[in-house]
Design brief:
By secondary structure, the chain is mainly beta. 9% of the residues lie in helices and 40% in strands. InterPro entries: 6-blade_b-propeller_TolB-like, NHL2_NHL_rpt_dom, NHL_repeat, Thioredoxin-like_fold, Thioredoxin-like_sf, Thioredoxin_domain.
Length: 618
């Protein structure tokens, strides 16, 4: 099958310069269809929204939530189809994909695309990417990244109007068939901490609650939360996929009135938990996802972005802000939040905390002199010292991973989500997509495997000298090993992301980010430039010219002639507002996307690199 080349333009009235037929959907199989294959011919007459995603990607998870209101509003005319094109080896496992569809409550058909066949046929370059297909089977809109719900709403409304008039729109149910759900006491738990009383507090993510268990890890003492997705405070609280939990020092708890801080991930909030009463209070966040606003200020006035874990360190609660690749700090005494580390660029870059790059930090653990962290998207173990300098112990970058022990400079992880400090000062790593607990010894720089065969371990804690592990995909806690027992060295394979590189010619290349405001909107230039483009590279010497930040979405790059391959890191954003002069205060929105584009140099390669932020390429 030939790859689609999208060279059409879309105006606000969905008029097309050319008509490009959507390529067929090809993959290994389907989920949420009752074991039936779905062809585009089966949904002709519907508006089809393809969501290219992979379940490791926090931006993809954001989009799943953004699409839910659209799916409800246009239920009789819109068919959403998830195209799962995996980044990591583990994500290509059909059982792991089935668990992820269950975990994240995906209520539409999902095509399993492990070889990235459909991904390549649609010329996709980023997770997530959204493609709209009209009722006659033609591609009419492409958008990369998140924050496109409003634009999609406008385009879908225009398509409904157009195809209702033409008689080509068919209303009714789509091919989605809900699977059976299995009940378990815990459901995709995320993290665990030990209370001063010796009980276990578990962030029970898919049950939208916090579970307190006896020290045996099985006996439920109480459940804090109704189990319904929501954000209500009080004695009958609601959460939305809570993840990390941090216990406060007793003197801080006495002043604040709560003993634990919960990272309420999908609500983009921090919640304070009083362990005596079970009452919950919102202590940080607005409930809105951070996109481009302030990062410092009164805690309940600052947007957060998918807080995944929390830890008490440096006199504050440090927040792993997985959604924008940064760390923030919450001060429970002054009730403020501030940026602690990171720039929002996704990558692996050490140095001063304010300049470092992170990649979906998902686990934290503190000692007196180090804050340990795991960056899941770079499969890295890192730490911050007391001088606020970031170091990497294990990890190569966004596209290298595996299961390999030995010297830390050669060791490999695969999408780790948790880290725990052991009694001897070494750290246990929940190496999630390898199904293993790994150990790193900072004294020797050696990496080993403590246990394997665990279903997606995502966190751990020490109980009576033993390691209790959150086996997330097994819906339980496990005691696979005591630290120091049965330690082994694994000489596994090194892997790289299968995503094919873009072949570019060395020398001058034009990079263009395509963005067209959705119907009824225009670029917001009331207060200056409405767009921003930031470009860096790995390795830095890949870019001879063109790195840096400008306010235009087109950039002349000069690529090195002596570098064979690398990654272009591109961050683009565009602000648009309602185009109605009668409205005094029009609604405005910011669209933003980060790309990590793997490239390979070849004299016969392309000299133009288009990236789709929203719209279609002319």
């Amino acid at each position: 099958m030939t790859r689609a080349v999208f060279t059409v333009g879309v105006t606000s009235s969905i008029k097309r310069k050319a008509r490009v037929r959507a390529p067929e959907l090809v993959g290994r199989g389907w989920l949420n269809t009752g074991d039936k294959d779905v062809k585009l011919a089966d949904v002709r007459g519907k508006i089809v929204l393809l969501d290219f995603w992979t379940f490791c990607c926090i931006n993809c998870l954001h989009v799943l939530d953004e699409l839910r209101p659209l799916e409800d509003e246009f239920a009789d005319v819109l068919v959403t189809i998830g195209v799962h094109s995996p980044k990591f080896v583990h994500e290509a496992d059909p059982d792991a994909l089935e668990a992820a569809v269950d975990r994240y409550e995906v209520h539409h058909p999902v095509l399993d695309d492990p070889e990235l066949t459909t991904w390549q046929n649609y010329a996709v370059k980023a997770w997530p990417t959204l493609v709209l297909i009209d009722p006659e089977g033609y591609v009419v809109h492409v958008a990369a990244g998140e924050g496109h719900a409003e634009a999609l709403d406008r385009v879908i409304r225009e398509l409904v109007k157009e195809h209702d008039a033409k008689g080509t729109l068919h209303r009714g149910d789509g091919p989605y068939t809900p699977p059976e759900r299995q009940h378990t006491e815990l459901r995709f738990p995320s993290k665990v901490v030990v209370t001063p009383q010796g009980t276990l507090l578990v962030a029970d993510a898919a049950n939208h609650s916090v579970a307190e268990l006896e020290a045996d890890g099985e006996t439920l003492i109480r459940r804090i939360g109704t189990g319904q997705r929501g954000r209500t405070d009080g004695a009958a609280p609601e959460f939305a996929e809570p993840s990390g939990i941090a216990l406060l020092p007793s003197e801080i708890a006495e002043q604040t009135g709560y003993h634990a801080v919960v990272a309420d991930t999908v609500n983009h909030l921090l919640r304070g938990l009083n362990l005596d009463t079970g009452e919950v209070t919102t202590i940080a966040g607005t409930g809105e996802q951070w996109r481009n606003g302030p990062t410092d200020g009164p805690a309940t006035e600052i947007d957060l972005s998918s807080p995944w874990d929390v830890a008490w360190w440096d006199g504050k609660v440090i927040i792993a802000m997985a959604g924008n690749h940064t760390l923030s700090a919450f001060d429970p005494i002054t009730h403020t939040v501030s940026r602690y580390a990171g720039t929002t660029v996704e990558g692996l870059n050490d140095g001063p905390a304010s300049e470092a790059f992170f990649a979906q930090t998902s686990g934290l653990a503190a000692t007196e002199d180090r804050l340990w962290l795991v960056d899941s998207e770079t499969s890295a173990l890192r730490w911050i010292d007391n001088d606020h300098v970031v170091h990497t112990a294990i990890g190569k970058g966004l596209f290298d991973f595996g299961h390999r022990d030995g010297d830390s400079d050669q060791a490999l992880l695969q999408h780790p989500l948790g880290v725990t400090v052991l009694g001897d000062g070494s750290v246990a790593i929940a190496d999630t997509y390898n199904g293993a607990i790994r150990r790193y010894d900072p004294e020797t720089g050696q990496v080993s495997t403590l246990a394997d065969g665990i279903k997606e371990p995502s966190g751990a804690a020490i109980v009576d000298g033993k390691l209790v592990v959150v086996a997330s995909a097994a819906h339980r806690l496990e005691w696979p090993v005591s630290p120091g027992d049965n330690e082994q060295l694994v000489a596994g394979k090194a892997h790289q992301v299968k995503r094919p590189p873009t072949i570019l010619a060395p020398g001058e290349v034009e990079l263009t980010v395509v963005f067209q405001p959705p119907p009824g909107q225009k670029l917001d230039e009331r207060y200056g430039p409405s767009t921003r483009l930031e470009i860096t590279s790995s390795p830095p010497e890949l870019l001879v010219e063109g790195a840096g930040t400008t306010t235009t979405l087109t950039r002349r790059l000069v690529l090195a002639t002596d570098v064979d391959m690398g990654v272009l890191h591109v961050v683009a954003q565009a602000a648009s507002c309602d185009d109605d002069p009668s409205i005094e205060h029009p609604a405005c929105r910011l669209t933003r996307q980060d790309w990590g584009v793997p490239i390979r140099m070849d004299e016969g390669g392309l000299r133009r690199l288009p990236l789709m932020l929203g719209g279609m390429d002319d």
